[in-house]
Model the fold of this input.
Amino acid sequence: MGKSPCRCEGQPASGSRQIAFCCVFAVDFVPSTARLAEHMAFNSLDFLVFIALFALLWPCLKTRRLTRYWLITLASLIFYGWWDWRFLILIVISGTTDFFTSIGLERYKTPWARKALLGASIAVNLGTLAIFKYAPFVAGTVDDALGTTLKANIPAFMLILPLGISFYTFQSLSYTIDVYRGHIKATRSYIHFFAFLSLFPQLVAGPIIRATSLLWRMEAPPHTTESQRFAALRLIVAGYMQKLLVADNLAIYVDKAFANPQASTGTLFWWGVMAAFAVQIYFDFAGYSNIARGLLKYMGWNITANFRFPYFSRGHREFWNRWHISLSHWFRDYVYIPLGGSHRSKAKQYIALWTTMLASGLWHGANWTFLAWGALHAAFVSIERATKWPQHAPKIVAIAVTALLTTIAWVFFRAANFSDAAHIIRNMLSPQNAAHVDIDFPAASALFFVAFEAYSLYLPLRALARSHPRAMRCIETVLLAAGLAIAITFRGPGHGFIYFQF
Amino acid sequence: MASFTSSSERSMWALALAALLVLAVAYLNNASPDPKYDETRNARTFWQHKVFGLADGIYNIVLSGDSRIYRGLAPAQFDAVLKGTKTFNFGFSGGGHNPLIFREIDRILNDDPARTHAVVLGITPYSLTPKAQMNAEYLDYKAKGPPASLQGIYDWFRPLSFSRLKKLAAGKTAKPSNEVYSYGDDGWVRSDWVKRDTGAELANYKANFDGNRVDQAAIDAVISKTADWAAQGIIVVAFRPPTTPAMIALENTASGFNETAFKAAFRAAGGLWVEAGQHYETYDGSHLTPESGEQLSKIIASAIEAAARTH
Done:
């Protein structure tokens, strides 16, 4: 859930819904993520109707290129505009800029012209982000430092964080950079580019898809077999189970603890809450990514996984190759490597590393706590580079230490401010409070978690699949149906996806 | 079956089967009484109506304050005493008195000079604290948005908790709740506890004032708005909602509220301060029983009637 992007001081932290706990003067203007959760998020009835209609139209219209692009673009605009149509203009501005600058990059060959075009794209994309995501944070920081009143004079529309802005601006920007680098040919079709940029399954919370991996694949009519469509549904159902069953049920307890963190003390209590949050955020985001992947697979396009069991990482370098992979690779390719990557002096390597991790922290939210979260991860990776400790430690120890450090870092990600974060960490690290246990985690959540793991692994069934393929097809179908029914029936209270606010 | 296992669209079979399962479970869930859920749904409908359902300028009397107001003042009693008026209880949990709420009161208040129109402010010390000025409950419901167009379907397909599943499987019915709430269209929540406990809320209130004492800026906002309303010919009534002596003693010591100074400033701004007296019963040490709430409502309404005669 993180912090309120509305940046109102003193507002309660109570989950992603808090996005709309906004300043008095902005409250009428502010569309809320909670509204999205009720209307067109993957876990909404509206989306069910939307996707049913899309699934009916898709097989009929996917064969012709132009109709395919138009269907995707219109569906995506409806999907996003359902939340608030006014913010579609930002996607159009971002996309139009990158569409034309990329054509310009191929037309003009002089270095200065190319750099100017690239600069224009970066300025527009990062400028949009700066205005809508960082201006109030910067103004507040200046106010605190200089006693000015910049923040109070910020227009109300700038207090709103448009959904998914960090995702689609990065996706659009990477297209231009890839064209600049000659990694991809620019498309001359405006609707082709917008079909790629606005692709609704991944528009508001990723995964960030590179143009190099999808743009030109969209040209050919996508074909899917029955098995591929079934595999797509399996991904979607797994995503729903992760989100509705695990993340949303855990959210009840995490939100309760974070509603008034100062009121709760106890080492085990806070370790329990933070462990729950670690699981919640993973299942929330991995669930979303799996649903997005499943939808794209159904449409005929495979994209790589965004998560690969990150909590089983040996060290934080590995963690970042398993967690939100599309983002960490984006930062690697467009920030870390251009800064020199691992091919310069030690000092420059560390500068590149810290810059990248701090930028990643700020990408998640305009708040000092996110910066601290990024800094902690930078420190973890720096120590790891210097000592290479995960290579020397036994595997199980390396995994456990990495998971513990990651859990501690999540405190800064979830807490509303440094005061709350300090209180929680103090409690987590104070043995004198160890006896104070008032954990109230539901047995049901744990059961669901185990059930999900058992379901997703299919271990005993794999053997059956080899010996009795027909029986296996029946069992798989019934299990999938049961999984979906369980996810819907035992879902937690409606909760927006955490990463919507980024 | 042969075609099913070989080449038919298993995805469609799986979705159809899942739909049947979900329908079956939802049917069972709805077929059995679920008082806990009914309470949740009634509360949600009530608050959504209060935040989104009120038309402009339709009420002659608006009651404002925190939970002691929305549970403690019965609009029907006002309308019975004042005759011909339409009263609405615009109180919110932990609600404060501030420009956001004042703006909403102005919006729903009827300004027809031919009729009595009044604003009633329940002045609890908590309602003047910084936390109360955050209007958390009001903004929470505002953020959730108006009732969803498909709310009925959402309700029918509501989630099933593990504990309810166990009860359904065992054929057990839910235990009746100790807390009894009845949500009215007029903004009043008629509330009571089956087993009353007049010390229950003391600890909560003590914690509520920890680092959260009465804020002079909130007082100034009330006084300023009172002068503004009074200048428009609106009767502005304020009173300290009655509660237990123990609670009053706690509030007086922990909140930093100077009632005497507030009353003087309020009266000077053109407001009418009503002494409610202390002959009331509470069910939890903070909120009035329905009977006491109706009794208090009549007293406040009579004060408005008297003020209207001389206005």
